[in-house]
# Entry
Amino acid sequence: MVRTRLPALALFLAGAFACRPATPASAVDPGEGPAVPARVAPQFPDGWRFQAGEEAVFAPNAMVSSNSALASEAGLEVLRQGGNAVDAAVATGFALAVTYPAAGNIGGGGFMVIRLANGEVAAIDYREIAPLASTRDMYLDASRKKTNKSLVGHLASGVPGAVAGMAEAQRRFGRLTLAQVMAPAIRLASEGFIVDSALWRGLRSDSAVITRFAGKDVFFPNGPTVAPGSRLVQADLARTLRAIAAEGARAFYEGRTADLFVAEMQRGGGIITKEDLARYTPIWREPLQTTYRGYSLIGMPPASSGGTTMIEALNILETFESLPPFHSTRYKHLLAESFRRAFVDRNTKLCDPAFCDVPVARLTSKVYARELRQTIALDQASRSPQGVETPAGLHTTHYSVVDADGNAVATTTTLNGGYGSGVLVAGAGFFLNNEMDDLAVAPGQPNMFGLIEGEQNAVEPGKRPLSSMSPTIVLDPSGNVLLVVGAAGGPTIISGTMQVILNVVEHRMSLADAMRAPRMHHQAWPDSIRYEAAGFPPAVADSLRRMGHGLYDTRSLTNVNAIMRVRGGWHGVSEPRGVGAAIGF
Ligand code: DON
# Structure
């Protein structure tokens, strides 16, 4: 395991902060249902791309927020039929595999966090696993340099978990049959849907990789990308989905679909076998539960790093009596320093718990947070031990669901890169992930997100690659669901999800503002704050530089889909920086 030590830094000086006044107790909404604290309107910096004060979608009963309006409608259709939030989440997940093929998937994997109205919580890990024939150095060339085989082509895929995970969640908690829940997705695949400009743009920008494989016939049937306004029918995918609806997950991991899957592997030099598929099993895990200033958080444990890393960073922030204002240099500095410390631990200590001892209890403890706080200087950036460049990240998708009974589901699923490895299983109609790149294919060298991980995450058969996916449910101090949230965006999933939570809980923003507020990110390496262009007032950026922070701007960070409880119902917001819709009734 790679060991790192942060340099010793000046001690914490609590008095140096100008604190935001605590929200007065009178600012509690007296409306129906659980109390919801009043919201405080933020001011966004000049030149920031979004306005404050926009409206969220309101629904009194139930809501689905996802990156595809058609997939959100699929979830809603199932809710209206009497399905619960888990049925609706699974309906949305299968529909995303049809309407949002860059990230929605049956050829990838994900994580789902569930909180039932009766207080029961659950988390299911359906992350992909490394094939049995995988080897530590399979992605290195003769000079031990990384090739791109963990990113593109047949070797890049882990054994998919999406179908097994969604079917198992639905079996355990759903009210309807799997066939009922999958009906909207099957309809969207077999009858088709109208291609919009977002899908067209996404396919066109990844056309080089998609057209190398069988996706060419589905998405580029006459040469150019299927045109906006045309109807896209995915007959092979519809057949695969129908088989799963009729026979359950088995129909993906055995029989015709498995035959097509393995034939595809053999055609392209891949190594996933029938045995790999037959052995795949999703895992129910104890969700991580913690508190933050009286709110409760329910998050995903390893093999995702999401919950652990977010809790570690939040715990550090909680050691400060209160946090500085949103646009202050001090707030950005504290966020950066908390993320830095949490990501150092993430990258050096976390991995699939079947393969290493993961010190989750220690990393998420309040005592440890207090120790880390002692290493933060208020007026000076600390240094991470190494630095590298970070390439941009691509595609994952998060969806949030609540039903009329108050059940809540947060799900994040991914193919890793946009359209995963680019390989579409011929005859079965779905893209395969390139999740093997989330393993440390060359420990100590950065992956596609610039994350440098150690030996604990090296390639080993059966191992789940460490993930950043962070499906999270936040309860208010009375124990009612307040927020259902999560994101896409590689490591920025953790920081972006956490900032939406902080915007709601600390800065008292409405969900619409919390989602539109400028975001920033720090992942220890590269040793710089990444921030959304025009998201920092110039004076704040200058001050952060003077404190020793590296800074670079980017157009957009993180793709979040969230739902928040408000007076008399729910607010839903799909990512203002992306596509999608929150829809409710
Ligand atoms: O599991 C993970 O952390 C990554 N495979 C997520 C990739 C991702 O979010 C890509 N971007 N939108």
User: Anything to note?
Assistant: The radius of gyration is 22 Å. Confidence is low (pLDDT under 50) at residues 1-31, 387-393. Residues 319 and 370 are 6 Å apart (CA to CA). Residues 393-396, 414, 416, 435, 438, 467-469, 488-490, 493 surround 6-diazenyl-5-OXO-L-norleucine (CB under 6 Å).
